[in-house]
Amino acid sequence: MPDSPCPKTPPTRGWSFSSSYALALEAIARLLAQGEECFITPQVLIEFWVVATRPIAVNGLGWNAEQTHTELEQILEQFTLLEDNPQIFTHWLNYVTTYKVMGKRVHDARLIAVMLTHGVTHLLTFNIDDFTSTAGIVVVHPQTVIDSP
Which of 100, 120, 146 is nearest to 38 (CA)? Predict the structure, then answer.
């Protein structure tokens, strides 16, 4: 699976180990064993900051800014960062117009735009239904990676 966005060694400190998390770790390990390169975007890091610093009572991790910054730095060491650039907006606008994307899904559309801009062809996600089919982008559930020979 060329150009799969996945971490080299996912962060573990302070994270819950749900069955989904374990599945993601296994899928990522398999991709890495196959020699895949993994990527992250500034948008994903921003969304991580939101969840990490949100109180536990409202489905966050309840971390302070220092702990979150430390974890973010470790994530940056584990991924190739796909830089933002002006072409991303052009791809995003074309995508949301073509596929009539509305509401919260416009954020996911921006991830697709980043991928198109940087030539990344595969997206590993549990949220398959959040992504409209796009020529040149293959959306893959972690279980599919595990089930493949």
Answer: 120
* Cα three-residue angle 22-28-30, rounded to 5 degrees: 105
Backbone φ and ψ of 94, nearest 5°: -65, -45
Return phi, psi of residue 62, to 5°.
70, 25
The answer to whether 120 touches 82, Cβ cutoff 8 Å, is: yes
Give residues with Cβ within 8 angstroms of 18, minimum separation 6.
none
User: pLDDT value at position 16?
Assistant: 52
CATH class for the domain made up of 19-147: alpha beta
39-97: pLDDT as tens digits: 999 999 999 999 999 999 999 999 999 999 999 998 898 789 999 999 999 999 999 99
Query: Looking at the DSSP assignment, which residues form a beta bridge with residue 39?
Result: 80
Rounded Cα gap, residues 66 and 27, in angstroms: 30
Domain boundaries, the chain: 19-147
